[in-house]
Specification:
26% of the residues lie in helices and 25% in strands. The chain is built from 5 helices and 14 strands. The strands form 4 sheets. Strands 5-4-1-6-9-10-12-13 form an 8-stranded mixed sheet, with helices on both faces. The protein is globular, with a radius of gyration of 18 Å. The chain binds cytidine-5'-triphosphate and calcium ion. Cytidine-5'-triphosphate binds next to helix 3 and strand 9. It catalyses: (R)-4'-phosphopantothenate + L-cysteine + CTP = N-[(R)-4-phosphopantothenoyl]-L-cysteine + CMP + diphosphate + H(+); N-[(R)-4-phosphopantothenoyl]-L-cysteine + H(+) = (R)-4'-phosphopantetheine + CO2. Its EC number is 4.1.1.36, 6.3.2.5.
Length: 228
């Protein structure tokens, strides 16, 4: 029914992909992070490049090599990722897969925080909010990407939370997944997602992250061809 994405069908299309976790430093040797491996975002960047798109992949720290044919920028913190994205000009499509840390330690100690001398007293950890890249892109007054796709990592009430997230962030589509430890999604090879658009909720079967990427790129291609 739905036409297949043709090779080169995203030719000339500028696409941003964010991926991976961010690391939020506490001191020179410690950081707050999450279990994101970057695999889903890298697979999407790769599939977009295969479809002929002009892809910028902005990633936090991961142990993956960038896909061929993709412009690649690496960063560590949410603020760095935000700055790289905002400095990179305009995009036709943005796919925000990064597991950006929502908060960072309020103070980054200049030297390693020492245990000695503070017997049995743990240092307090105060957090402050990070900028939200997806929300910022979605609500840009000038130069908003025509299609902004967010991801929603949930551990309960996946569809309800993701629908609310789509509205709150102002993005067009949300790809929601259950990242509870028993699913093996975070860090694993497979993913099971729900695609939420303004008028549809589609449950996709469990498949490899590479296949999820291909399906998402096919949907982007169809959307772009209808837009043109
Ligand atoms: N995101 C982002 N910048 C942030 C936080 C999130 O760009 N500072 C993006 C993610 O890349 C993802 C989407 O927002 O595409 C949703 O991220 P998620 O963590 O699931 O949602 P939050 O709104 O942060 O809500 P919560 O963590 O409370 O579920
Ligand atoms: Ca979050």
């Amino acid at each position: 029914r739905r036409k297949q994405a043709e090779v080169g069908s995203l030719a000339g299309c500028r696409v941003l992909v964010t991926a991976g976790p961010t690391h939020e430093p506490l001191d020179p040797v410690r950081y707050l992070a999450n279990r994101s491996s970057g695999q889903q975002g890298f697979a999407i960047a790769s599939a977009l490049a295969d479809a002929g798109a002009n892809v910028l992949l902005v990633s936090g720290p991961v142990s993956l090599s960038p896909p061929a044919g993709v412009k690649y920028l690496v960063c560590e913190t949410a603020r760095e990722m935000y700055a790289l994205v905002m400095e990179s000009g305009q995009f036709d499509v943005a796919v925000c897969t990064a597991a950006v840390a929502d908060w960072r330690p309020a103070h980054e100690a200049g030297q390693k925080i020492k245990k000695i001398g503070e017997a049995d007293v743990a240092p307090p950890l105060t957090l402050v909010p990070n900028p939200d890249i997806l929300a910022e892109l979605s609500t840009k007054s000038a130069g908003r990407p025509k299609l902004v796709i967010g991801f929603a990592a949930e551990t309960e009430n996946v569809i309800d939370h993701a629908k609310a997230k789509r509205e709150r962030k102002g993005c067009d589509w949300i790809v929601a997944n259950d990242v509870s430890p028993h699913t093996g999604v975070m860090g694993g090879q497979d993913n099971q997602v729900v695609l939420i658009t303004s008028d549809n909720v589609e449950q996709w079967p469990r498949m490899s992250k590479a296949d999820v990427a291909k399906q998402i790129v096919e949907r982007i291609t169809v959307w772009i061809s209808e837009e043109r």
